[in-house]
Amino acid sequence: MFHVAVLAVVASQTISVSPASVRFDHVQTIKGKDWPVIEFCSRTVRLRLESPQNEFKIGTAKVKTDGTFRRRWTPRRAKVGAGRWRLVVRMHCESGEDGSTVTVKRSRIIRIRN
Known about the structure:
single chain
């Protein structure tokens, strides 16, 4: 059973990416809005790219007291390939009842171009 406070915030998070199609060596900005800022949730989100063949860890971002975060990154040809990727943002929360993990997750499709 999940704590009511956790259930109330697990559905409202959003992420945005600008630009959605980014060239190698150009900056992409990832923003989050309405992420939980409660005692049951970590204040850190983890960002990674996933494709059917690969995964790439972009890094982490701290969630501010207003529930937003921002992370800028630059795709490097030596680290990640061109093509379509799913950007996945995850935050770990606890149930508030028994301490079991509740993962808050949102994703967007991005494209990395030559």
